[in-house]
C-alpha cells in the first residue's frame, strides 16, 4: 500500500498541511474549509454551548502576551490545559508515541527531555531505506592508522577507537541525498558563492594571460603562435562556460563502521563540507551507535546545521543515516509532546510523553511514503511497545478500509492495543474527500482540523478573528465512499511548533489536518497517561468511544458531523468517561451493511447519493459484531457478554429501525428501512445509534451513518441550471447536488460575484462517485479582487450525482463587513461516442466513430494526436531473497521477502520501488507505484523493480512481470491523426472531415485514419503501442485553436495505435563473392577463419597461457602472412594482456603489432576505393563496401593504438621530443616526430573528434601544452557522445584541469564522478 504525501513549501505530504492567506503560513497545493447546510449561507461553527469561552473564543477582548503565546500551541480548545493543571502527573508520562512522518530532528527545541526529566526521543528510525549506505566493503588499517574510504579517499582512524578484529566497514554517500530540497538549495547557494569567487579569479588570470600574449604578439602569421592564442582563448571560454553550466551535486561523506567488542560504531568524515581542512576529519568524529542504545546524534557541519542519527544493520554491512525529509515530522512531534521548561505555554499537548520517530517519507521520492516504510514502522511500534501512533500522511484511495497496510494496522490495534491516530486530509470542503488511511480505516481515529477565534487572532494574525470556532475550509469531509462517517473527532489544525535545526529557526507556523492529528494524539496521550497511572486498562476501543461520546458538537445541523465528526474532542470529559467505564468490557462494534437482496457490496454506512436511490424506499441488513481484543478470555469475557441495546433514529420519518436488540458475542443482524422520497433536494444526514439500556450514560455504543444527497434534476433543454443570490461570509460553504443529465460529458460554468470591497478567495469543488473508482474530483481556487465573472470547464460522468461545493476561504474577508453575493450558472454539454477508446490495429484500415448529441446542439470538431510510445519488456533476471530479521520481520513472525526484477532497454532518442541506471551505474530516476517521468539521454539502461511481500507465492507469480516503458514524443514528433467522411479516405486522401454541427438526437459518422508509416518514430520495436488523446467537442469559450489540442479539452479519450511488424527488406538475388569461389577455396577460408576465432577466444591470464597464445599467433602469422583480420586480432590480444611486467616492452609490442596491421593494408587501394562511387548494379558492391569499411576501421584502430603506445613510452622515459619551453609553439622537424607522422596518417581516414579516437587528439594537444584546446576537445567529445561517455574521458578532463591549476574545478569534477560512475547501485 502506498500513500501520497502532503505537499507544501517544505514538500510536506500532499494534503495534510495546506495553505492560508497569511504569509507566515506554509503554503501547500490546496486549502479547504468548514461546511454548512447546502442551501444556507449562515456559518455554523464551534461550539454552540456554554463552553465557547473555554475553547479558544476571544470575543471582544484583545490578546495579551500569555493568551497570544497560548494560541500558538492551542490546548485550551480540547481542554488539555485544564486537564494538566488539574492533573500535572498525567501530562503524558509513561506514554510512548510513534510518529509516522518525515522524520523527527532530535536536536529540535523542546524534544530533548520530558517534563519529568526522561529522554524525549527513544529511537529514530529511517523505515524507508532512503538513507541506507552499503558498508559491506571491509578494509584494514596500515601502520599509520590509514584506511581507504568508500569514496577512495585516504582516511585516518582514531587510534583510541577499539576494534578487536581490525576490520573497518566502509561506504560513502552523496550528502545531498540525505538533505531536503530546501536545505540543499540553501547549501548550493552558499557553495556556489564560494565557487564563483574562485572561478572569477581563474577567469581574471586567464584573461590576463591572453591580453599579455596579444600585446607581445600584436600581429603575426606564425601558425604556432596562432594555436597558442587559440589555446589561451579556449581557456577563457572554458571557464566562462563552467559558470553557466555549474550544477552542484553536493559533497561526499565517508562512513566507517566497526565493532568495538560490544557495539557497532559509526564515524563519518565530513571534510568536504568544511572550509577549514582541519575540520570534519574522521578521527575527530565522536562515534555513534544505534540511536536507541545511547541516544546520540551528529551534525554534518555548521553550514548545514543538519543533525543525523546512525543505525547499523546486517552485521555492519548496512548503515542507515537518518535525516528528515521535511520539517513536517518534527513539527508534528512538537505539537504532540514538546517540552519547553522555560516556555510552558509553548509546550506540546503532552509534554511528559516520549516518542519514537519512524521516518516513512522517502527522501528519494520527495517525502512520499512507501509500503516498505509503513510496514517497518509498524514492526517498530510492536518492538518498542508503543501506546500510540500518529500518522499525518494520506491520500485518496480506491477502496476504503482495504489493503495490506490496513490488515497490518488492524493487527497492531486489535492484538497489541495500540491507538492509531491519523489526519483526515486537506481535500475539503466537498464531501467524500477524507483520505486514506486516516479517514477511511475503521481501526484508525481520523481527525478533522478546527480553528478557534484565539488561533485565528494569534497564530494566524488575522485582523478580525471569527466570532466562533469552525473547521478549516480545506479540512476533508466524510462520508467515505462506503458510507462511514470518515472523520471521528476534530482538534486544532494549526500551531507554531518546533522545526529542525537546519531550517535555522526554532519553530514555525503550519496548519492542516497534519497538525490536528498530533494535537488529538497528544490529548489521547494525556488520557492514556491517566489510565496507566490509575490502573485502568488501556484499549483503543474504549478510548475512541470516550472521545466521540464526550466531544462538543461543531455546528448546529446533523450533517455538520460529516465535517467535524462527533465534534471537538474534550480531554477532561473523556477522562471522566473513562473513569466511569473502567469496569466495562473493552469491545468495539463492527458494522457491516448490505442492501436486502444483495450480497455485495458490503459497507459500513448507508450512502444514498444517486437519484435512483433517492426516489424510492430501500431496506438494508445491518450486522453488528462485537469485537474483543485478541487476548480476551473465552470464559471470562466472550461467553458472559450480553447487552440489551435500545436503537434510536435521529430521523424516524426517514430512517426506521427496530426498537431493541439483544447482542451477544456472536453478533446480531437487524433490518432498517430508508425512505428519502419526501425529502427536499440537498444534503441530509441521520444516524441509527445503539444505547446500553443498563448504562445509558455510556452514550452511543455504535452508530450507523445514513447520508442522503438528493440531487436536483435538470429538465430544461438545453440543460442549464442557475443558483442565484448565494450569500457568503468567511468560512461559509454552499453545497448543491445535481443529477448530471444522461449524455452530458462536460460542464461549462460561470461564477459572478458582487457586493464586496476587499478581495475574496473561493474554493470551488465538484465530486462524483462511481463504484470501484477514486472519487472523480475537479477543484479550483479563485480570487476575485473585485466584483466580476469567471468561467470554468470540467468533465462529468452522466447519470451520476455531482456535488458542487462553493466556499469562501475561512480567513478571506475577515475584517470586512461586506457579504459576498454570488450567482453560479451551469451548462451541461455532451457528445456521445460509440467508442470510449479508439484502437487502431496497425493495418491501413480506419476506425469508424459515431457521434451523437443528446442534450443540445454541439459543434463536432474532432482532434487526435499520438504523443507517447509504450514498449513492453520482460525481465532478464529475477532474484528472490529473504530480508534481514532486524528490520523486516513482521509482528506475526513472518519474514518479508523481496523480488528484484531486472529489465534492459535501449533509447534511440534522448510495496514496489524502481531504479533506472545507465551502463555506468549512474542512477537517472527512482519511483514507486506512482511513477514519475524521468528524462534520459540516448543509451542503454537497466531498470530494477523491487517488490516486497511476506507471501512467497505472490512474488513467484510476478517473476515474469511485464514492464511498460512509456516515452513522450517531442512536440515536433507528435503525430496528428486525420479524419475522413469515407472509409477509403486514408488511401485516397479524399473526403477529409473537419467539423460539423450535431443537432439534438442526430447522429454523424466519420473515420479516424491511422498514421502514415513515414510519421512513425524510427526504430519503433514490434509490439509497441503509440498512445495519445482524441477529443470531439468545442468549448463555447476558451483560447484560440484550443480544439486542435485534445489534451486541453475538458473531455478527451484514449487513442492507441498498435505498431505493426517492420516491412521486410528487399532481397536481391545476388551471389556473394564467396559463392563464386570453388569449394576448395571456400574450405580453406573457413578453416582460416575458424583458427582466427579460436585465437580470439583465448584470454591468457598467466604467463604460461600467454606463451601458448604467442606461439599460436606466430604460427598463424607464418601461415597467413599480411592477412589483416588476423593481425588485427593479434593486436587485440596484445592490448588485452592482463599481466604486464615491463611497461615499456609491452608498449613496444603494441607498436610492433599495430605496425604489422598498418603494413598489411594497401592504403593506396583503400584511398582509391573511398574516392570513387561504387556501381549499384555490381553484384559484389555491397560485400566490397563492407570489406573496405572493415579494413579502414582496422587501419584506424592500429594507428590509434600505436599513437597511444608512442605517447606512453615517451611519458615513461621522460623524453620530450617537443621542446616548447625555449620558443612558444616551436616544434622540431616533423620527420623526427613519429607520433605526429602517425597522427597525420590517422586523420586521413577517420574523424578524430569522437569518443572512439578523440582521446588521442586530446593527448596530442596536451603534448603540445595546449591544455585549453585539449579541454575544449574533450568537452566536445563528451557532449557529442551518442551513449554514456566513458570514464576515461572524464578522468582525462580532471587531469587537464589539474595540470592547468584550476583546483576548484578539479574538486567539482571529482564530486561529479561519484554521480556519473558510482561503484555500485544504491541499496533499495
TrEMBL record:
Q: Which Gene3D superfamilies match?
A: 1.25.40.710, 2.60.40.3170, 6.10.250.3080, Peptidase S8/S53 domain (3.40.50.200)
| UniProt keyword annotations, A-Z | Aminopeptidase, Coiled coil, Hydrolase, Protease, Serine protease
Sequence ranges assigned to domain Tripeptidyl-peptidase II galactose-binding in this UniProt record: 728-812
- TM segments? none
EC number(s) stated in the UniProt entry for this protein: 3.4.14.10
Family affiliation: Belongs to the peptidase S8 family.
Alphabetized GO MF terms: aminopeptidase activity; serine-type endopeptidase activity; tripeptidyl-peptidase activity
Which species does the entry assign this protein to?
Daucus carota subsp. sativus (Carrot)
**What is the reaction catalyzed?**
Release of an N-terminal tripeptide from a polypeptide
Q: Name one GO cellular component term.
A: cytosol
According to its UniProt record, this protein's enzyme class is hydrolase
Residue span(s) of domain Tripeptidyl-peptidase II first Ig-like: 600-708
InterPro entries attached to this UniProt entry? Peptidase_S8/S53_dom, Peptidase_S8/S53_dom_sf, Peptidase_S8_His-AS, Peptidase_S8_Ser-AS, Peptidase_S8_subtilisin-like, Peptidase_S8_subtilisin-rel, TPP_II_domain, TPPII_C_sf
Spell out the protein name for this chain: tripeptidyl-peptidase II
Catalytic center residues = 101, 328, 514
Report which residue ranges the record marks as coiled coil: 222-249
Q: Where is the Peptidase S8/S53 domain?
A: 92-559
Residues covered by the Tripeptidyl peptidase II second Ig-like domain: 854-909, 910-1020
Q: Which GO terms describe its biological process?
A: proteolysis
Pfam family example for this protein? Answer: TPPII_Ig-like-1
